[in-house]
C-alpha cells in the first residue's frame, strides 16, 4: 500500500498553483514580475493599512534575511517598491508599493480571484474556514 504523505500532496498542489500563475495571460504581460515579486506585491497591498518591514516578509514567507534583502533590493531596482524612513526609528525602512506595483496588483487580483474560485469549488464556507485553520496550524508547526 502506498503511503500518502500530506507534504507530498501540498508540494504537488503548490506546483500546480505556481503553474497556474506562470501560464496566466495576465502574468505573461507582466515581464518584470517574478512569482515571488507577485506574492510580495499582493501581501503589501493586502496590508496597506499598516506599516510593513522586511522582517515581516521574512516571517510571512518563511525566508531568510539574506533572501528577503535580495528580493527587496531587486524589487526596488525594478521600481516596484520603495523603502521609506519611519519617524519612530531612523534605522527602520517601511516597504511601500509604487504606483506601477499598484497597477500590477489590480491586474493580478483578477487571477488570484479566479484561482481561489477554482481551488475552493465545491467547498462549503465551513469547510473553507476549517481548511484555512488546518493550513495555519501546519504553518505554525513548521515555524517552531
UniProtKB/TrEMBL annotation:
Protein name: MarR family transcriptional regulator
Transmembrane regions listed in the UniProt entry: none
Record keywords, A-Z: DNA-binding, Transcription, Transcription regulation
Ranges for domain HTH marR-type: 3-140
Highest taxon of source: Bacteria
Amino acid at each position: 500500500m502506498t503511503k500518502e504523505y500530506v507534504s507530498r500532496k501540498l508540494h504537488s498542489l503548490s506546483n500546480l498553483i505556481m503553474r497556474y500563475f506562470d501560464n496566466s495571460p495576465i502574468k505573461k504581460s507582466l515581464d518584470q514580475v517574478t512569482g515571488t515579486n507577485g506574492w510580495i506585491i499582493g501581501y503589501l497591498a493586502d496590508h496597506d493599512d499598516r506599516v510593513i518591514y522586511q522582517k515581516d516578509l521574512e516571517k510571512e514567507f518563511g525566508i531568510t534575511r539574506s533572501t528577503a534583502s535580495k528580493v527587496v533590493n531587486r524589487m526596488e531596482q525594478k521600481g516596484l517598491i520603495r523603502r521609506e524612513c519611519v519617524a519612530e526609528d531612523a534605522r527602520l525602512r517601511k516597504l511601500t508599493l509604487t504606483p506601477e506595483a499598484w497597477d500590477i496588483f489590480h491586474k493580478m487580483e483578477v487571477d488570484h480571484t479566479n484561482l481561489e474560485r477554482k481551488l475552493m469549488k465545491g467547498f462549503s464556507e465551513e469547510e473553507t474556514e476549517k481548511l484555512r485553520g488546518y493550513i495555519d496550524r501546519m504553518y505554525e508547526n513548521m515555524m517552531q
